[in-house]
Automatic annotation (TrEMBL):
Start and end residues of each Pentraxin (PTX) domain: 47-246
Cofactor: Ca(2+)
Gene Ontology molecular function: any one: metal ion binding
InterPro entries in alphabetical order: ConA-like_dom_sf, Neuronal_Pentraxin_Related, Pentaxin_CS, PTX_dom
Pfam family membership, one: Pentaxin
This protein's name: Pentraxin (PTX) domain-containing protein
Matching Gene3D superfamilies: 2.60.120.200
UniProt keyword terms in alphabetical order: Calcium, Disulfide bond, Glycoprotein, Metal-binding
Amino acid sequence: MNESSKLFRGKHRNPAVAIVRLLSVGLLMVRFSDSATSIRQRPFGTPMHKVEFTQKGYIQFLRWELPVPEFTEFTFCLWMKSNDLTHSHPIFSYSKKERERLVRSWIGPHGGSVHLEIGGEQVLAAASDILENRWYHFCLSWESQAGQYGLWVDGRLLARGHSVETIGHAIPSGGDMVLGQEYTDFDKGLDDGIEGSVVGFNLLLASAFDASDHLEAAYDAIPAFFDWRSDAAIPQRADHHHGTISNEPRGRGQLVVVDHAASATELAEWEEQPAGLRLIKLSYVRCEIGRGSPFIAGGSMLISWTRTPVRVFGGAVLKNVEGACGHF
């Protein structure tokens, strides 16, 4: 049985499958079967985009088209708004052959908890109070050297600790990375799934922790809250070639705002921070940079919201968004 028939059996499904490529030069291309539609805009005027999901009568999710290497650390972030929190919302699923669960993270029913599971081991189950019809920014990070993990919600470090069971664990290569559904659940009940919108999912193969530090010291270096009205935590590099925001990588890949030039010391301190922590900060306080996908840490960014090819299943809808972070 082919992939499409498995996805749509058991309920009436919309068989539309789109391949979406969002390129950093400002070209948006969506292919439906043999036809293609492209929208070209100015590189610095291209709006951000969101994906709207529903699981009512459909199975809708994103699956990224890329080779996945073995990895021992990661950080991912996304903005999400749910219209109906009755069922669990899978915000990340990495599995192999649609059977072996390697990494999965989800928001529990009614928004009452956030979970992370790695290699079948529960790493995190944090109580939360997620509400319907409002935007939240979620980030999760983990590394295997000390089994450290952290959860940030709206810039606040909501949970942290270490998982002894995952110390030294390597996550296998060659799996499928999915957002919106648990990719191993197609033969089970399919009520679980994101019912709402997502903006700016990015995943780095780097953690938010300094692996050379002990657990307590590493957390001391991580602010518990980032004020999204303040730019104090984000150093800014002068750039005389473009407008207010530069969409080209500079130095080691940081995007910067040009209104106020940072000192060499400030820039050096910023670039010395763990790559995952830089993603958490930038994607929360400056979500518009890179149209939802800042350039960070070069090749360690495995999934970019705007630059990594992704397949859109079940007719999920792609829309432009305007407005400030958290008010899309």
